[in-house]
TrEMBL record, chain A:
Entry-linked InterPro entries: ABC_transp_permease
One GO cellular component term noted in the UniProt record for this chain: plasma membrane
Residue segments, region Disordered: 321-340
A Pfam family matched in the record: BPD_transp_2
This protein's name: ABC transporter permease
Transmembrane regions listed in the UniProt entry: 36-54, 61-80, 86-107, 114-132, 152-177, 206-228, 240-256, 263-285, 291-311
Compartment(s): Cell membrane
Protein's membrane topology: Multi-pass membrane protein
GO molecular function list: transmembrane transporter activity
Keyword terms: Cell membrane, Membrane, Transmembrane, Transmembrane helix
Organism: Methylobrevis albus
From TrEMBL, chain B:
InterPro entries, sorted: AAA+_ATPase, ABC_carbohydrate_import_ATPase, ABC_transporter-like_ATP-bd, ABC_transporter-like_CS, P-loop_NTPase
Coiled coil (residue ranges): none
Organism in which the protein naturally occurs: Methylobrevis albus
Gene Ontology MF terms in the entry: ATP binding; ATP hydrolysis activity
Family label: Belongs to the ABC transporter superfamily.
Origin: domain of life: Bacteria
Keyword Transport: yes
One Pfam family it belongs to: ABC_tran
Keywords (A to Z) from UniProt: ATP-binding, Cell membrane, Membrane, Nucleotide-binding, Repeat, Sugar transport, Translocase, Transport
Protein name: Sugar ABC transporter ATP-binding protein
Length: 340, 500
């Protein structure tokens, strides 16, 4: 565990303790389960975002994709009567295709990730709204999919399945990013794309795969959200989710320049953001201040981090200086030749 | 440039600068006066760059005094250094290539006119033109910097330094990317400045240039003063002794003979940079083929095309008779080709990554099990390389960027040697590294050739090309204008082919 991750964990415990002390309902099983459910839902696409950010890219269309694929998923089942496993497969294939498209535009046409995914954000949202004629896509009254609902929105021993899915995805993502050759290549491409190319890394492939992975997870996330809300209002569904993912990643130590970050960090980032949201609700702070609270905490966290780094550097400097003094005080100062 | 009215008198006394990982300067003293050229020499990591940064005001020393014109201070800032007339020409050239020459020279000191302070373009050009004339540049005040060659950019940096009220000019490795005639021109400029009363502090690894121009030489070793040489004592041997503390007996040895079997062959190769010219080249096992030529002759482009960084317009490359697919570094590496690139910092290394991770980067797939990195094997590989190549690094999990240039270059070599290459292409392998590390790189090249590797060395250092190569191919404007055997090698012959 990195020092940064540790600091974040401590912060979460502190905030949690304070909220629990002020309002004991924080620790009630129902509140914990609800918060955990949200952590699972938001965590899936935050990890997706991290895979793109680590390569030095960014994915701004996550929220729109969640709306578009959510609409398609519900429509496939309720209007076209497609069996849900097939609908899930179709949605994931569409997600992969979107990822391929973004990766292709970024690597082959050399467009900036920000521009490509910003256009995606606008396009997918528009398509989703057009598709439903700006209405709401929802399951018809009394529709019932016990297996799907159990899998996606159910609970085991009180633990929401979204959290379990998030945990499984996080473990796999950790292994991929921090233990595999591909993960090392992701960091390498993010840190120095040119040196990566000179080292024989197929940088284009690595970047394309990162967008595909991101969208695959986003597609999965879209299904979870669709089943969570049970109806999708495409004008607002998933709004700002991409920024939420970016915030979680930045909190978790990812650099927007690429090449830095850890999965543990982004997981902790997601947890902190949800706990903060919960804090706003439980402490009776007007919910309109929600984003302001989040933004302030992130800003303070980032400032504290840089200040602490500077302080540590100074300490190391002072320590090195005193060792030198010790050395210089011991006899002979050899080779101190005069200048003139 | 007119005579300096108040020549500078500057002394550094007992300067010490400590970093957490190393002692950069330990009680170093140096003095310089207007009208004097001082050569500052030392191996990489000896502390030259740090000392210069103290003078330029970007680093504040932990101990010591700086005395300028009799006034003592503990440290300078960039703006106070400028006020004192200290100008700094950096080794790494980073002009603003989106601006033109005039904008670059006067950046941050733009001349203004009128009530609203609009930029006075004409006055600026009038100010810049005489400087360019003095330097004898081929470019004018309104030429875009993006079109300037490396050498011209160097002159641009000097013009920028001279555009201030300069009394002390610090030149850090100014000739490392210049050709012979451009270097001569620069040395003339240095003499000219000295005669005008400017103090010149000249840092270089090219000892012959120090010999030609310096009035005094100051040596640094391991962050300490290693001694000084007066004008009449300056010669190469004495300088080398100052730098490394012992004489270098024999720098170059006669290279070994080729085993005769052809390892690398390029036929009808055309690169995107010079699409009209074709290159044919054969390289035998055990030979070191020097690739000489002026900057911009197309040597790097040829190397990049062979290594697959750039696509090939046309032509075939084979290793031991087997064709290498075009435009893929992965395929080139698989075929046994590797390239030690020209720009160590941006192309060769991940400066923030651990030394071990850098060394293992191209061999990761081979070290992996089921796609997972084998950290133990990675460390073992790096430890092995450290021992074999004599990389001076106490810890392999520290960032590669913390090491000196010579050791960084060894890491780049190590990362490729771990792939067991058959063809090793080296692009300016000793640029910016010190004498001791140079000798080690040459020894390593000979050892690799002795083991049967075919080595292609691109170099602009004549002495090096002649000293190290078994044969030399000379390039000019994208084609090979001549091939010289070891016995035929001379500076004059190479030059004649290079300007053909």
């Amino acid at each position: 565990m990195h020092r940064k991750d540790l600091g974040l964990a401590v912060l979460i415990v502190c905030v949690g303790t304070i909220v629990a002390l002020v309002n004991p309902r924080f620790l009630s099983p129902i509140n914990l389960a609800n918060t955990a459910n949200l952590i699972g839902l938001f965590g899936l696409f935050s990890i997706a975002q991290a895979f793109v950010i680590v390569t030095g890219g960014i994915e701004l269309s996550i929220g729109s994709v969640i709306a578009l694929l959510g609409v398609i998923f519900i429509d496939l089942i309720s209007t076209f009567g497609v069996a849900w496993p097939l609908a899930l497969a179709i949605v994931l294939v569409l997600a992969v295709l979107i990822g391929l498209l973004h990766g292709w535009l970024v690597t082959r046409l050399g467009l900036q990730p920000f521009v490509v995914t910003l256009c995606g954000l606008l396009i997918y949202r528009g398509v989703a709204r057009f598709y439903t004629r700006d209405g709401t896509a929802g399951f018809s009254f009394g529709a019932d999919f016990p297996a799907l609902e159990y899998l996606v929105a159910g609970r085991t021993a009180g633990v929401p399945h979204s959290v379990i899915a998030f945990a499984i995805v996080a473990v796999i993502a950790w292994l991929v990013l921090h233990r595999t050759v591909f993960g090392r290549h992701l960091f390498a491409v993010g840190k120095n794309e040119e040196a990566a190319r000179y080292s024989g890394i197929d940088t284009r492939r690595v970047i394309i795969v990162s967008y595909v992975l991101c969208m695959l997870l986003t597609g999965l996330s879209a299904v979870f959200f669709a089943m969570y809300t049970r109806s999708v209002q495409p004008a607002s569904h998933g709004n700002f989710y991409e920024l939420y993912g970016i915030a979680a990643a930045v909190l978790g130590g990812f650099s927007l320049r690429g090449g830095e970050g850890s999965i543990i960090g982004v997981v902790l980032g997601v947890i902190l953001l949800q706990v903060l949201q919960n804090l706003v609700n439980l402490l009776g702070i007007p919910s309109s201040l929600n984003f302001a609270v989040m933004g302030s905490v992130i800003l303070v966290g980032v400032i504290a981090d840089t200040q602490f780094m500077a302080y540590r550097e100074k300490r190391r400097q002072a320590a090195a200086m005193s060792t030198l003094d010790m050395q210089n005080r011991t006899p002979k100062r050899s080779e101190a030749a005069p200048e003139h | 440039m007119a005579r300096v009215e108040h020549p500078i008198s500057l002394q550094l006394i007992g300067i010490t600068k400590v970093y957490p990982s190393a002692i950069a300067l330990n009680d170093v003293s140096l003095s310089i006066r207007g009208g004097e050229v001082v050569g500052l020499i030392g191996e990489n990591g000896a502390g030259k760059s740090t000392l210069m940064k103290v003078l330029g005001g970007t680093i504040r020393p932990d101990e010591g005094q700086i005395v300028i014109d009799g006034v003592s201070t503990a440290g300078l800032t960039v703006s106070r250094a400028l006020d004192h007339g200290i100008a700094f020409v950096h080794q790494e050239l980073n002009p603003f290539s989106n601006l033109d020459v005039t904008d670059n020279v006067l950046l941050g000191r733009e001349l203004r006119k009128g009530l609203f302070g609009f930029i006075d373009r004409k006055a600026m050009e009038d100010r810049v033109r005489p400087l360019l004339d003095m330097l004898g540049t081929r470019f004018g005040p309104s030429d875009p910097v993006s079109e300037l060659s490396l050498a011209d950019r160097q002159l641009l940096e000097i013009a920028r330094a001279l555009s201030t009220n300069v009394r002390l000019i610090i030149l850090d490795e100014p000739t490392s990317s210049l050709t012979l005639s451009e270097t001569q021109r620069l040395l003339d400029v240095i003499r000219h400045l000295r005669d005008d009363g400017v103090a010149v502090l000249f840092i270089t690894h090219r000892l012959s240039e120090v010999e030609m121009v310096a009035d005094r030489v100051v040596g640094l070793r391991d962050g300490r003063n290693a001694g000084a040489l007066a004008r009449e004592d300056i010669d190469k041997d004495a300088m080398v002794r100052l730098m490394i503390g012992r004489p270098v007996s024999q720098f170059y040895e006669k290279p070994g003979e080729t085993s005769g079997n052809i390892v690398l062959e390029a036929r009808g190769l055309r690169t995107a940079a010079n699409p009209r010219e074709t290159v044919d080249l054969t390289l035998g096992g055990g030979e070191i083929l020097g690739l000489a030529g002026l900057v911009g002759a197309g040597r790097t482009e040829l190397a990049r095309a062979i290594f697959g960084i750039d696509p090939r317009e046309d032509g075939v490359v084979t290793v031991e008779g087997i064709p290498v697919p075009a435009g893929s570094v992965t395929e080139a590496i698989r075929a046994g080709i590797c390239l030690v690139p020209e720009d160590r910092k941006s192309q060769g290394l991940f400066l923030d990554f651990a030394i071990s991770q850098n060394i293992a980067m191209p061999s990761l797939a081979k070290l992996a099990r089921y796609g997972f990195v084998d950290t133990q094997a990675e460390l073992a590989l790096a430890g092995d390389a450290r021992e074999k190549l004599g990389i001076k690094a106490p810890r392999l999990d520290r960032p590669a960027g913390e090491l000196s240039g010579g050791n960084q270059q060894k890491i780049v070599l190590a990362k490729w040697l771990a792939t067991r290459p058959k063809v090793i292409i080296l692009d300016e392998p000793t640029r910016g590294i010190d004498v001791g590390a140079k000798a080690e790189v040459y020894r390593l090249m000979r050892a690799l050739a002795g083991d049967g590797a075919a080595i292609l060395m691109i170099s602009s250092d004549m002495e090096e090309v002649i000293g190290v190569s078994s044969r030399v191919a000379v390039m000019s404007r994208g084609r090979i204008t001549g091939m010289l055997e070891h016995e035929e090698l001379s500076e004059e012959r190479i030059l004649r082919l290079a300007v053909e």
